[in-house]
Amino acid sequence: MIRNAANGLSGPSEPRDSARRPVRPALSRDFIIKTALEMVDTRGIGQLSMRKLGAELGVDPMAIYYYLPNKQALFDGLVEAVYAEIQIDVDGEASDSWRSTLVAFARQLRTVLGRHPDMLPMVATRPVFSPAVLGFGERAVVQLGAVGFTGQQALQLVNCLRTFTVGHAFAELSEPVGAPAPSQDEVAAVIAERYPKLADAIAGGYQPDVEYEAGLQAMLDGFELLRPPAGEAGPGS
Amino acid sequence: MIRNAANGLSGPSEPRDSARRPVRPALSRDFIIKTALEMVDTRGIGQLSMRKLGAELGVDPMAIYYYLPNKQALFDGLVEAVYAEIQIDVDGEASDSWRSTLVAFARQLRTVLGRHPDMLPMVATRPVFSPAVLGFGERAVVQLGAVGFTGQQALQLVNCLRTFTVGHAFAELSEPVGAPAPSQDEVAAVIAERYPKLADAIAGGYQPDVEYEAGLQAMLDGFELLRPPAGEAGPGS
DNA sequence: ACCTGAACACCGTTCAAGT
DNA sequence: ACCTGAACACCGTTCAAGT
């Protein structure tokens, strides 16, 4: 029995880079997108060009165009790749209540966005069309319907959670699209001078996680008020 | 008596373009930004370049650099100009309740964003630093404090409304950052086939205004639950 | 003070060509 | 089938120069 760790785990017939010439894996749509996403995450969206991506891949920039028709298609692939990171265990026992299902989705989305801050403008801009999100939508409509929400309400709730999460991620993560903004200290000084009560409130410190959770729970609480007292338990009063 | 309509209404000593040579107003930071914003709104952000802006202004592209150090500064000016459109009548009678104050702010922000959809990535990306928004924050903290919210809660509420509004505007308005997305029909077909319950819910039609209002009120309702029963009116069970 | 124009180091993409 | 390389029409920005 072979007991070393690498016994075929990386795929059945994947060639090692021992005998073959190329140090890089064979070019493919997936590998190009994976490499591009790494570039975006490490160097920033501004440093992603077809030419630099080609260089990173060790290939003529035009080789990319064999797999992707243009830069926009590359962007689509990147967004797709980000959404694909959302893993909602569709049959998980954890989400037996509609509320925990929605909370899990929202937090997961936020976590994934947090891994790719420079992707935010692209993600926010492209209509949601990913199986991960659509599949979740299907499930949410069913589960929310079972406790008394209408289809419209269910959709609205999911959409509001999604848009809130994206909006909050922007506020939290996004570097200004081009260059850095005025320093925190400068801003703080102006606020302290002109907006004293606001300054007091800010003095508590900005806690994005706490704020996000507050908004998330508030949104859920607010929608819950809309729900008719369903379930077979009698609608007394 | 001179009765024609144009009797000086356009400003005290503004030169007509009769005797003077330039057809355009004198170049200035404000005029450059105003022109750029019009280009963004009518032709799209992708069509805004320093060179095209120069052409639009009837001027060598490099002339712009006398007023703005670089394109990033132009972007800053554009975001500033958008925020400046937010007009909250700070002493309006309409906003005697904290809730109507917040609703007015959120709806106004949404309206302004709706006028400049292509500005969304820039707006969402830049930290809020505008007098309109900061001034509103100050007021909100005071007014919310008066009814029992802590400074932290007030800030969180304002921030959550703002981020929700921005996120929702993205979902509603944004053209994909580069090129158009797959057509509505294509998407609908796929959804109908694979996500039947979701399709039923969508069949009701997407009503962004209704959805936004639902989310807005839900967020407010949810935060209201956090508020201790303040006001001098007795806290009887 | 305000604007011009050439020049530099980049882009995305087309197209013909190589293997 | 897969990749290369020259070429085209763009960019933002620097820098020296004009008035």
Q: What would your notes on this structure say?
A:
- The structure is a homodimer.
- The longest helix of chain A is centred in the C-terminal third of the chain and has 23 residues, at about 150-175.
- The first copy, chain A, contains ten helices and no strands.
- Chain A has helices spanning about 30-45, 50-55, 70-85, 100-115, 120-125, 130-145, 150-175, 185-195, 195-205, 210-225.
- Residues about 1-20 and about 230-235 of chain A have low confidence and may be disordered.
- Chain A has two domains: about 10-80, Homeodomain-like (Arc Repressor Mutant, subunit A, Orthogonal Bundle), CATH 1.10.10; about 90-180 and about 210-225, Tetracycline Repressor, domain 2.
- Chain A is an all-alpha fold.
- Chain A is flat and about 60 Å long.
- In chain A, helix 4 (about 100-115) packs antiparallel against helix 6, helix 4 (about 100-115) packs parallel to helix 7 and helix 7 runs antiparallel to helix 10 (about 210-225).
- Chains A and B meet through helix 3, helix 5, helix 6, helix 7 and helix 8 of A and helix 3, helix 5, helix 6, helix 7 and helix 8 of B.
- The structure holds a DNA duplex (19 and 19 nucleotides).
